[in-house]
Amino acid sequence: MVASSVEGMRILHTSDWHVGRRFNDVDVLDHLGVVLDAMVDAVRTEQIDVVVVAGDIFDRASPPPEAFNFLDQVLVKIRKAGAQVVLISGNHDGASRLSFMSAAAASFGIHVRTRADQIGDAIVIDDAHGPVHFYGIPYLDPTLDRAQFDAELPRSHEAILDAAMDRVRADLAGRGARPRSVVLSHCFAVKGKRDGALPRSAETAAQVTDSMRSIAVGGVEVAPTDVFEGASYVALGHLHTKQALDDRIRYSGAPLAYSFGDERVARGFWVVDLGAEGDVHAEWRTLPIPRKVSTITGELDALISDPAYDGVEDDWISAILTDQARPTDAMRKLRNRFAHCVHLEHRPLVIADGGELSYQDRVRGKSDEDLAVEFVAHVRNGVAASLAERALIAEAFEDLRAAEVAE
User: Fold this and answer.
1) Three-state DSSP class for 204?
2) Which residues form a coiled coil (predicted)?
3) Are the C-beta atoms of residues 232 and 203 closer than 8 Å to each other?
């Protein structure tokens, strides 16, 4: 099929849809639908030729039926908008399920790559200047998948991705001078050279949000960008934030926030123009945010009454309560104002000093009632029992003593 662009090929780079994922146990498939519908509109208005989706299409290996139906509808919309689709599996996907009926889908312009033996098999799509070769490198586990390349391959992301790219480079070598190519890869890449020092997981933790799953092997989960040598453009997936490692190697990030760790992160996709000589020009496009993500911090009474929070009442809310004692029925009270409060944490600003006495010294000479009263203060971070609570404790012990006498 010949693409519609006259100046070159226009590619939309996206990834990490995580179809079927929930936000703090709340179904957000309708929110993802809003976002991807906006992306489909962009396919049409920006005259996109090919949409590349760099892995984590689904959120888990066995998605529910509604997730399959959702993906099917989105892909049909993209094709009707005029673009072909190339997608790969990520570390969240079940490769065999994602690739079901992929041969039939290819005849419809939807190309799926989920296996190592497909890596050197180019998907060729033409534009006005000739062929562009698309290669899919699905997520590769350095321990489980290295035998598909070389059983003696070092157990690292760098080694297995370099071996995968060797297959790409070998195929490109037989396709004439300066063939244009686009590589999709689901991995954690950092700017660097082969065989160089790579950061360990602790050093890259700031780039890994709580909506992601670690792929560390031996404390290292990254590979250097030099392994992708030879590709005109590399569309990466796995990180949930957009990044440009250089002009030709980029992450699009996830199109939707899936955790509070994704707060204040831009959501969108790259529009990549691939020229006649393999030159690359990329521009960022933003996507709508169906519901923003906000964290609010303070004492409960202030959070539910302060007009300063009027602007976030419809957001996904994570509430950090700083009251000295954990307030009673806090979530219900918060939801009276913030209907989409889905996370609650108690972080008191004042921590009661338990003193240096041993437990034996603290209880010596005290009655059971006194100990119960002190326990209330202990679990409430130093807030003492009220007179009414003391009366209830005394009544409980009186009933206990009466029951013992009756026996």
Assistant:
1) coil
2) none
3) no
